[in-house]
Amino acid sequence: MNALPPARRLRVAIIGGGFSGAAVAWHLAWSHRPAHLSISVIEPRPLLGGGLAYSSKEPAHRVNVPATRMSMAPEDTQHFARWLTDSGELERDADAIWKNGDAYPRRRVFGRYVAEHLAPYLNSGVVHHVEGSATRVTRDASGAGWTVHTPSGPIGADIVVLAATHPQPAIPAALIHLAEAPGFIADPYAPSALAGIGPDASVLIVGSGLTSADMVAELDRRGHCGRILSLSRRGLRSRGHPDVRGEPFGDFASAPAISALGLLKTIRATLAGARAANVNWQSVFDQLRLQGPVLWAALSPPERARLVRQLRVFWDVHRFRIAPQVASVLDRRHAAGTFDTIAARLVASNDEDGSLAVSFQRRGQTRIETASFDAVINTTGPAHGQALQLNPALSSLAEAGLIRTDQYGLGIETSLDSRAVGRDGRIITTLFVAGPLARGTFGELMGLPEVARHAQTVATEIARLLDTPATISANAARGSVTS
Length: 483
Hints:
The strands form 3 sheets. Strands 1, 2, 3, 7, 15, 16 and 17 form a 7-stranded mixed β-sheet that branches. Strands 8-14-9-10-11-12-13 form a 7-stranded mixed β-sheet. Mean pLDDT is 90; it is low at 1-7 and 474-483. It is globular. Strand 4 (136-139) and strand 5 (146-150) form a beta hairpin. It has helices spanning 19-31, 79-87, 89-92, 107-124, 210-221, 260-276, 281-290, 292-298, 301-319, 324-335, 387-390, 392-399, 439-442, 448-464, 469-478; strands spanning 10-15, 37-42, 127-130, 136-139, 146-150, 153-157, 159-162, 184-185, 203-206, 228-232, 339-352, 355-362, 368-373, 375-378, 419-421, 426-433, 480-481. The protein is an alpha/beta fold.
């Protein structure tokens, strides 16, 4: 096959410049002949790499895994840790180092690390930051190319990568009457979202995961000392890290379970073995995370759906742990009687002249309780199932039949090589999905190590097209039937 002519660059448009999109751009520019690439990253934030997760300026918002496990380069686990030391960030943030020596820096610091590593390619012109949001994506009539529409003008591309951010949490139906109330916070990560909450205010946090924990830590840092109630269906709080980290424990991949129930039994048996061996439960879940793709692949679609429906919430609170600095705030507030978590379902709400009345039913009880709060914060988690409706670029592709929601409601359906699958089941050869939106195909694809590896894989798939440019037009026009 003929190589790409020197005068012709492969044009790659990446929609979303958070960690997923920035990591794809970096791997392409760093590892795959940048002279033959023109990479445009469409992102409304002024810096690439931060996204929703790593742009927060709030000092209490910290990365939730040790710095030694966060890296843009999957083969170099110390990549971020070295930068962190060399940059002097640890000297400016004494609280970043936990008592066991692990570093949990502020989230915006990780975003700056990603931005600094992309900077040389932005300066050289290999990567272009289009500051804005993609409003629509169209495929050329020939099927050989794409146009990404933005407020600053159209961007032509041979390859499009969908690396959009998580959709904002949907407002629960029971809280819809509070949507316009001054004390209701729909987007907890909006700048100064909590600034209007007074020190003695009573606060309801809907949700009990990582974002809920962030809100408690931020309120505490701001001097809040009133009561905080966290409410979720199961009342499960995100777990913390062990004081001493161990090696991953157990073997789930040699004979992977073929049912959700079988996997649950294997996990319970492995946890019992870990206790007998004086190994912490976190080591078991670390092994589950590492072997997650094998486990997901072994399950049939109905068993995957059952796993998501019945066990996902338990997985999330054990897998996605909170930084020990944040956990210590929650523990201190709970001991002081100013923070509690309950299992309950929302029933109704009402804005009574600034006092937000919320009715709920505790798990296992029939009585409906009503309590009044000065502020209600929605932390129910990203609305992954609505991504194709809420994001205009994704919506335009869905309407054209070029993408579809995966059958588990986690994101966009893809092939095993991360290409989007259209409404008719055909693979769209030049349309890729990077990051959490592809987890319906790969299973565990929310943690940063997994997202970094996936970004690298997507970049490698794109780079292969550098050697086969003549096939792009034909394959894109006819598509490929999924197996």
